[in-house]
What does this fold into?
Amino acid sequence: MDNRNLTLLCDFYELTMANGYFFSDRKDGIAYFDVFFRDIPDGGGFAIAAGLGQIIDYIKNLKFTAEDIEYLRGLNMFGEEFLEYLKDFRFTGDIYAVPEGTPIFPREPVMTIKAPVIEAQFIETYVLTTFNHQSLIATKANRITRAAEGRVVSEFGARRAHGADAAIHGARAAYIGGVAGTSCVISAKEYSLPVSGTMAHSWVQMFDDEYTAFKTYCELYPDNATLLVDTYNVLKSGVPNAIKAFKECGITKCGVRIDSGDIAYLSKEVRKMLDDAGMHGCKIVVTNSLDEKIIKDILRQGAKVDVFGVGERLITAKSHPVFGGVYKLAAIEENGKIIPKIKISENPDKITNPHFKKVYRLFRKSDGVAIADYITLHDEEFDTNSPIELFDPVFTWKRQTVTDYVAVELMKPIFINGEFVYEAPTLSEMRDYCKAQVDSLWDEVRRFENPHRYYVDLSQKLWDLKQELLSNGGKLKNN
It folds into this structure.
């Protein structure tokens, strides 16, 4: 969809480091970077991965134009040989990633990049800005749709999004997270999403009276008439005029939208008025700065709502607007041998897990419930027919032996040697996959308040390696 050249959507340090690698003995080295995040938005029990589709498009089209190179030359920071190298630059490495819609947890790799160091370092900014934004919106959308308890949720936030890209890609991410559709027409067109919308208050104000505005709309859209009933007075004029217009136009497939006031109270009163008029099939749509907390509250108060239109608090993830994914070096290759790397910090949360790794999700055989995630070294094998002992990587005395399980490797190959090898699902398939995977989590993990912590454990070999690196300042003993 995006025909812009986004190659220079990078941080300047990615170019200065690339230039430095080019003119040092690191130029031809292979690096392994992990993408992961540290904190779940809104204190939730899990997040939802999204954005891989745009990362794939970016990698496929990654190249420096003559104009890009001339701009960089004018900065007087880069060697001429490096600028010549950029003329034929493309991604030639490997990328592994979890499918979009996967529930993900802190400090586990959701993407691993293995590539020549210049290439692996260079793509950091685009990968993070895309993964962070769309995962944030998909996570918020999933919270909101779960709060709606099976009622329809539509994304209505384009006018409040942080720019065009945030609106377009935010609608995509929200759909993966569970919403039924969007009001953003370009997103609906490009991503084949269901599109929906009603009318603005200005439509009602444009006519001499409310009834004429409603009747005109019903005549224009007899198969999709949803009338905004709160321009003047919901109960005294809006709903009575809507009922009159529906009946005079012979419309039974219809809806009314409430965009202000006490939604819990008004929706109950509106439902009674519609039912008393024999319009039992007329849907009630509500909008106005909704989020999962408000939705849960008004439903607990008995609100009669069929459809939620959620805008600004979804498209901006207003309650937690930063996802916090990071891109960290996990290993390098020297003479064909993988050398693990670790970041050590006084802040324990910032200590990384070293080496090239695999991530498995363990599901209980009997009912398909997700038990824990298990991170191993890339070449480590374990017999899934044998019991496995899991232990907390920090509080190591917390241990559990699991016997009845199936292990599913989470990260799939996306690019191998620069070639695209992934069979990408449709957005509808991603959405269905997301719902099924979320349903596999314990109820306690899905809880909105104070959720149970889902366990992400390290294999014994990986844990031992990490302790060795921590004890020796980031180096292996035999080095």
